[in-house]
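From: lab user (bench 3)
To: helpdesk
Subject: output format question, protein + 2-oxo-3-(phosphonooxy)propanoic acid

Hello, I'm new to running complex predictions and I'm not sure whether the block I got back is the full result or only part of it. Here's what I submitted:
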Amino acid sequence: MFKVLVSDPISDLGIQQLMDAEDVTIDKKPGLSEDELVAIIGQYDALLVRSQTRVTARVLEAGSSLKVVGRAGVGVDNIDLPAATSKGVIVINAPDGNTITTCEHTFAMMMAVARHIPQAYAKTVGGEWDRKSFVGVELRGKTLGVVGMGRIGSEVARRAKAFGMDILGYDPFLTEEKAEKLGVKLASVDDIVRGADFMTVHTPLTPETRHMIGAEQFKVMKRGMRIVNCARGGIVDEYALVDAVNEGIVAGAAFDVFEVEPPAADHPFLTHPKIIVTPHLGASTIEAQENVAIDVSEQVLHILRDEPFLNAVNMPPVAAAVMTQLQPYFELGEKLGSLAAQIADGPVGEITVGFSGDLAELDTQPLTRYIVKGILAHHLGSDQVNIINSLHLAKERGVNVVVNKSHAAKDFTNLVSVTLSSRGETTHVAGTLLTGYGPRIVQVNGYTVDVAPSGHLVFISHHDRPGIIGRIGTLLGSNDVNIATMQVGRQVEGGAAIMVLTVDKGVPKPVLAEMIQLDELKSAKEVTLY
Ligand SMILES: NC(=O)C1=CN([C@@H]2O[C@H](COP(=O)(O)OP(=O)(O)OC[C@H]3O[C@@H](n4cnc5c(N)ncnc54)[C@H](O)[C@@H]3O)[C@@H](O)[C@H]2O)C=CC1
Ligand SMILES: O=C(O)C(=O)COP(=O)(O)O
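Helpdesk reply: Thanks, we reran it on our side. This is the complete output you should expect:
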C-alpha cells in the first residue's frame, strides 16, 4: 500500500483518482511546520503540495521512503530541487492546469489597477461617495510589455489584443514566427521598460530574473507605467518599486506575489494607496485547482506504480512518443550497466555508452540514466540509485559519462554498448533487443556471445585448451550447481577465450575460489542480473 501525504489545500475532486486507488491511502494534513513534516514524512511514499509547504533538504532527508513530490501547480521554488535530485526523489508539477486562470487573474489585476477598483471599493463601502479620486485609464491603444512569453504570458498577450493593446514581448525562447502569430512585437526588457504603458512579468524566479525590474530599470522607465506581477515575488524589486511609485515614475502596481509570503505586517505594499495586492490567488479558481490536482494525481500514481510518467521537473523532458520507443530498452540498458560493473575490476573511472542503429536517432538520455543506474547500483546499493539521481551521483563521484552514437549497427538493428574504464583497464559489454527474444547480451570484452541477461551467470576468462570445459562442469556439478546454458567464444584457436554459463542458482564463494585455481583459467566472475 502506498501512502500519500497532502500537505497543502488541494482539490478533493482533483485527487479523487488517488482516493479511489486501491493501492493508495491518503492523509491530508495542511499547514504543517517544517519540524512537523520532518517528523512524519518518513512514513510516506509521495507528498502532494502547492506553494505553501516548503520541501526543504531536511524534509527530503527525512523522507526515507519518498519517491515523488507532486506540485499541484507550476512553480517549484518551494521545493529544494538539488536535494530531491541527489536523494533520487522525482519532482513533478502540473504545468498546464492553471494557465488560463492565472492569465485571467493578471487581467483582473491589470484592470483593477487601471481603474482603482480596490481603493474605490474600500471608500464606497466605508460610506464615502468619491468619484473624482478614481479617474482611471483605458487599456485600448496602450502598449503592454510582457516579460516571459511562456504559457501564461502568451495567453495574456492573446487577450490583450482583444482589448486593442499593442504588445511588446520578451522571452529568450520567443521566435519571430511565434511572435508574429500572436501579434506581438519582439522586444528587449529595455524596450519594454522605456516604451510600454503597462508591463506584466510571467517568468519563473531565477538568479537571472531576480530583480530584473529594479532601480536601474525604474531610472529609465516611461513615466506613468503600471506594473503587474502575478508570477513570483522578487522578479520586481519591491523596495525599488515603492520608491518609483513615490517618485511618480510608476502610476500603479498590482501584485499577487511577494518576495516573502505572507509579507510582514509592515510591508510597504500593504498600506500604499497606489499598490494593490492579492494573497497569491493567481491559480485559485475551482477549475484550475481541479485541473492541477487531476494532472498531478495521475502522474503520482504512475510513479508509485513504476509506470512511465510525465512532467518531471528534475529530469530533462522527453517527448512521450520517444519515451514509448525507448521503454523496451530500459531493462536491457540497466542490466548491461550492472553486468559491466560486476565483471569490471576496480572502481569506475569513466563510463562510455554507445547507441547504434535506430536508437541513435532518438533522444537517448533516459536510457543513459538507466545504464548509469545499473552501474552505480552495484557499488552504491540499488536503494540508493535511481534514474533521477544516477547522472548526478556519477558526476558527484567524478565519473565522466560519455555518450557515443552511430547510425550504423553492424549485424544488429540496434545495439547498446557500455564500456567502463578504470586505471587503464576497460570492460566492454553490448546488448540488443531481438524481436521475439527480448534483451540479449551479444558482446563481452570483444567476444561475441548470445545470452539472456537474467538470473545467475558466470563469466570465465581462460586459455582455449582441451579439457577446461569438462573441469569446470565437473567442479560445478560436484557442488550441486546445475549449468543451464554454456557458451564459449575465442578469437583464435588455442588463444584467449571466454565462457559464459547460466546456472540455476548462485555459485558458492568457495567453489568460485576453487574454480579460479584451475589451470588455464584467468578469472571467473559470478554475475546476478535480476
Ligand atoms: N500567481 C500564481 O498563483 C501563479 C504563478 N505562476 C507563475 O507564473 C510564472 C509563469 O508560469 P508559466 O507561464 O506557466 O511558465 P512557463 O515556463 O510556461 O513560462 C515562463 C517563461 O519565462 C521565460 N523566461 C525565463 N527566464 C526569462 C528571462 N530572464 N527573461 C524573460 N523570460 C524568461 C521562459 O523562457 C518561459 O517561456 C511562473 O513563475 C509560475 O510559477 C503560475 C501559476 C499561478
Ligand atoms: O502554480 C504556481 O506556480 C502558483 O504559484 C500557484 O500557487 P498555489 O498552488 O496557488 O499555491
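A quick orientation on your result: The first strand starts at residue 2 and ends at 6. Let us know if anything else is unclear.
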